[in-house]
Amino acid sequence: MRTFLAMALGKTTRFLLRLVRRGGGSALPGTIAAAIQPKLLERAIQSAPMGLVVVSGTAGKSSTTNLVVSLLRTHGLKVFTNPSTANIRQGYYASVLQFGNLRGQIDADIVVLEWDEGHGAALAKDLKPRLSIITNVLSDQLDRFVDPVYVQEKLSEIINNSQLVIANRDDKNVAQIAASHPDCYGFGLAADLVESGPNYAINFGEHPELSASALIRAATAERLLVMLKGLDLEIAGNFENLSQAMNTAAALLAIDCLIDIDRELVANTIEALPPVFARDEMAVIRDRSVRLMLVQNPTSFQLNLDKLKTTPHPIMLMAGRDIHDPSWLWTVDFRNLDYVDVVSGFNAHELALRLHYAGVKVRLMEPKIDEANEHFANLAGEEPTIVFSADAMRRTRRYLGLAK
Predict the structure, then answer these.
(1) Is the pLDDT of residue 71 over 90?
(2) How far is it, in rounded angstroms, from Cα 193 to Cα 201?
(3) Cα(91)–Cα(390) distance, rounded to whole angstroms?
(4) Across the strands, what pairs with 80?
(5) How confident is the model at residue 319, as a pLDDT?
(6) Cis link prior to 314 (omega < 30° from 0)?
């Protein structure tokens, strides 16, 4: 009865909120449903016979989740996931409300969820993942997690409550917490590529050796070559970004542990995949193709800016509420930009100040995201580009009706 009531009220609230707020209405219905039936998510997952797969870590969660989901679906499985990359508790309940029936059951063979490190750790003991993928530990969100060691502790909870673990063997922080798991497989870069790989959180401890079950042997602008459990798998595409190559290797290893894979189908699927929402994606907004670039920390901000060989027009930078300590904006080099057409978001003033001292002209500073989007939509130019933090991205999606 509690499950029926939670689903009925949650679905009704979601429907009514979306009538009055375009693209919105996910957090509150999920909160209501969770309060009425705290075991709603657990029971929904139990209705999927192949269990739960989770993806967690500092970076790469959304891309890796998207790869795993797509690969499982092309192999004929019905997959339940959190489609809007809402990777905290309310987001999971919202997904159940959206796709579950009134008994709280989901029509899926397997569940694949992107997990925020903190929220995932709190859920792991009850949900007991069949398989967890741990991407990395970066020096990120220090205002939230204080120290990378705290992230390790959270990820340890996920690992210790998982039947099978897929872990980044190149990241010492991950290797330390995954090495003791009795059923752990490692993914990473071949020895000649490690020096060019991602920079992980500084750790002065030992580096345990994990298996090289998925080893990236080549990652270029033309192809990715992965030795997957002893056999080479080649995928066409631009994999110069080694972080994305690592996400792909992790996903490949995960599905190979879950099902009997068709290697040709795997390669074809990955080659045809579009980017995850806002991960350097081209989206049609009001009949115009707009480039969307999500930034979540100084490193990703810099990497996205470095992709811009020239200053696109129009361009909007948005710094939302999720940038709790805007001082990190001063570690980003903005000097390759000649100007910014619009600066917006909760931290718009701080971002505009940083741009000013970098010698970048700001043509409009509008903290209100809705008004900034309206102004940006009316600007002429052949390369409309939005670079935004996660909070600004969600608000922009909602305002423009892009939220699912």
Answers:
(1) yes
(2) 18
(3) 14
(4) 111
(5) 95
(6) yes
Q: How far apart are the first and last CA of the chain?
A: 28
For residue 282, give both structure tokens.
């081209």
Give the three-state DSSP class for 166. strand
377-380 contacts at long range (C-beta below 8 A, 24 or more positions apart):
377/285, 377/286, 377/288, 379/313, 379/314, 379/341, 379/342, 380/314
pTM for this structure? 0.77
pLDDT tens, residue by residue, 224-270: 999 999 999 999 998 988 988 999 999 999 999 999 999 999 999 99
Q: 343 pairs with which residues across the strands?
A: 317, 365
Find the mean pLDDT for residues 19-40: 71
Alpha helix positions (H), 206-290: 242-258, 263-272
Q: In one letter, which amino acid is 11?
A: K
What is the DSSP code string of 356-374? HHTT-EES-B---HHHHHH
pLDDT tens digit sequence for 100-133: 777 777 889 999 999 888 888 888 999 999 999 9
CA distance 250 to 238: 17
Which CA distances in Å does 65 have to 81, 104, 113, 197, 286? 9, 23, 7, 21, 29
